[in-house]
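Sequence and structure are no longer studied apart. As an example, we show below a sequence and the tokens encoding its fold:
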Amino acid sequence: MKDVQKGFSYLFTRFLTLTFLAVLCFGFSACKCGGSGGGGDGGKIKMVYIDGGPFYMGSPANEQGNIWPSVEKQHLVTVSSFYMSECEITQEEYEDVMGNNPSYLNNIGKNNPVDTVNWYEAVEFCNKLSKMENLNPVYNITGTNVEMIGWPDNVPNGYRLPTEAEWEYACRGLYTDKKTTKVTVPFAVGGPDWKKMTHGMANFNTEYPYDPDLNDDEDDADKFRPNIPYRYRSTEGAGLYLDRTTKVGSYAPNNYGLFDMHGNVWEWCWDRYADNYPGDGGVNYPGPGTGSWRVIRGGGWFDNGAYLRSGKRLPESPGAGGRDLGFRIVRR
């Protein structure tokens, strides 16, 4: 009889445990991304609608970490409405489409973002996924020559990489009066002030968080400068630094419902890179017509907090595929 009672006790305890975990998973963002499917329009990858409009792209010249103000100069642009993948493309999603997993970090979870993927592979993924879902491919691809069809007014309905303007518009999320207000905050998570990037907010090198309030003197600002020793180091953050990617959706989303726009992996954009933005008034600007480099955005697990700023932008060779390089997709 005691054995029977123990059996019932064990099963009841097990039931409660599994119920708790199910509830926890239901409420936890990481369970919502990566191979979940059902993206509103019937596609496999969940897409989030982004209502387009005008906004000030770039960062204030005095923003901590903006050490090349001309590269991040604020300027007024307009983007049309679009859909963006809720999460970075996962290793599982990539392998389902491409038949292989190029990720260097391929032994820690198929719902981690695909990494070590170059720009050419990312646009090829977009075309292949479009065909799998009976959509019209966006790109004409001949070797390393890639052209976007019909941009901007007659672009096909298939998947593509975001333009740099679309990426930043989506990253910054919803804020009041986009047309007339210049954004003065560096992040789209961590409200109500959105001015810090510390552990628990994104996957990055938490040994070097972003916290302008810690500036005690002029020299202390050097902690935000790349490639020189930092004045400020978080001992607590150092102990929490993961030194790898995490499962997509492991941190709070921005108020569009997009996960990991800050950190985890850098994300490829369509645009060629130029040091200077065009002037005000651009509509659906696709980047310069010439150039050898492509834009990456968002920062990665290897970077300090300053690199996760919404306006931070870097050039990268389209043939490069670092272990902190991934992407997400958009479509009209």
User: Anything to note?
Assistant: The CA atoms of residues 79 and 284 lie 5 Å apart. Confidence is low (pLDDT under 50) at residues 1-31, 34-40, 216-231. The chain has one domain: 31-331. Helices lie at 2-27, 91-98, 119-132, 164-172, 235-240.
